[in-house]
Input
Amino acid sequence: MKFIVLGLGNFGASLATRLTEMGHEVIGVDNSMKKVERLKEKITHTVCMNSTDEEAVSSLPLADADAVIVSIGEDEAASLLTTALLKQLKVKRIIGRVVSPLQKIVLDAMAIEEYILPEEESAERLAMRLDTVGVIDSFKISERYSIVEALVPERFVGKTIGQADFNNRYKVLVLTTIKSTSKSADGTGRNLKEATGVVKSNTLLEEKDILVMFGELMDIQRLIKA
Output
């Protein structure tokens, strides 16, 4: 997969480096030549440019990128301008960065549906989410084991937990499922996520359900990708 990371501060540098280590093609962009030079051996490609310059950004392979991540944190205005520019250029998947409540409001107004809060989400977790299609979030318990949230694979929709037999077939334990609902107490109509409790063998898996799984990362990825 191909990713473009705009902003190579601590978070952006860690994300771009980890994605490169995972085998993805990554273009890391920053307006600081010092940062670009420091990371040129760790990231697939590095480019020094101003990400608010439309002509410069248009020269990047935006149409080929699976996602463009705006990880600029030091300059909030530049982060928002960059995100707006990507929206204007019709980038198919934009992941914005939120460092303040006001920035979150502006991203919502731009209809940016994915964003990162670096104080809450590590670069490792985001890299895992980008690396495996369908992964929504992950939490590393130890060197071997993780808890991962992922959309139920299409081949399991309509089956029960007992029929899917995740434990025996993949050595993965499904802790619970999460369903989306449009009901909200504040009347906004926004989708809310609601856990269904401990799963049973007759728990039915439906389209857009989220599986919360525990196991070794390799086994969980095998379940999702197979």
